[in-house]
Structure formats: structure tokens, C-alpha cells
Amino acid sequence: SANATPEFEGRGGEELGTEIANTFYRVFSSESSIDLKSLCINPREHCWVLYVDVLLLECGGNLFDAISIAVKAALFNTRIPKVRVLEDEEGSKEIELSDDPYDCIRLNVDDVPCIVTLSKIGYRHVVDATLQEEACSLASLLISVTSKGALTSMKKVGKGSLDPESIFEMMETGRRVGKSLHIALQKILDEEESLGTSRQKVGFLG
Known about the structure:
By secondary structure, the chain is α+β, with helices and mostly antiparallel strands.
């Protein structure tokens, strides 16, 4: 949204949008992130395709971290309707959707990674940098971490350089922070789901 920052006026946000899309394509290109077999309806013919639309309303530090958390939460709440594939005598196939809106399957998000951004400032690195801290950083490392602490991808951003020793230190910090991030996120998601229909509705759909 152009309201996020004046830089997004007109077509100003397209470059960032492309960078976000490419980064998350790399993060989710790993087969271990989501069980793609659960999205299969009819092998080699039909499958569910998931689209994620991201709208930035405020731009201020660690965008990739926030988006990755939102994506995992959205996938956790995703329900995929159960379908049956019916075949007639002539061999043509027809997909039948279940009439029961609650007859659906859920995605396993245990291996969906979250991104941790580590900004290098001097000889140190900072997690969850503020706008002022980001302004002092010439290089950052984006690390995608699973709930078990496995690193699935890394990406350096910024014009500065990172020495190998710093990279290893940032990887260890990212793994530790990522695991605690997953625990905190899953706790919130479970608490919200346990509320059921008594959950407070917010936003324009409330």
C-alpha cells in the first residue's frame, strides 16, 4: 500500500514486491516445507493450488520476518474441502465437492519455516532491528528456520559484506531465535483455535 511509505507511491513498491515473491519462492521451493501430496486431487491431472496475497500497510523493519509469520499462521488456518473424483463408463472424470462445509483437510505446518533477519552492525549482529538500527547496517542475513531448528535457506541483502566467521555466528543465532519464534507462534495459534466460535472477530469481516 502507498500508505506504508511514500516510497511506494505509483509503481515504487514493485521492486520490493518482486523481491518478496522471489524470496518466499525460494523458501517454499523445498519439498519438506509443505506435503504437496496432500494437495493432490487426481495424480498428474488435478491438484489444489495455494495463493498467498500479502498487503503491506506499514513498512518498518523486518518485513520478511513478519510476512513469514503471517504466512505460517494463514496456512495453519487453511481448510481444504474434501473432493471425490468420479469416473463414468466412458472414462471421463468429474470432481465432486463435499456438501458439508466442515468436511475438509488441514495442512501440516510443522515444517513450514519462519524467517529471521539478522542485521550486521559493526562487529555485532542484531535481531529484530528497528528502523534506526537498520539505517546503521550495511548487510543483513535472511535465514529461514523450521520449528526443529533446521536452516532451509539463506539470503544476504544489502551492499555490505559478511565474513565467514560472522555468517556462522549469525546462523547459530538465527537457529536459536527461530526455534523460540516457532514455539511462541504455535502457542498463540493453539490458544486462538481453542476459543472456537467465542473468538473475538476483528476487522471489516467482524
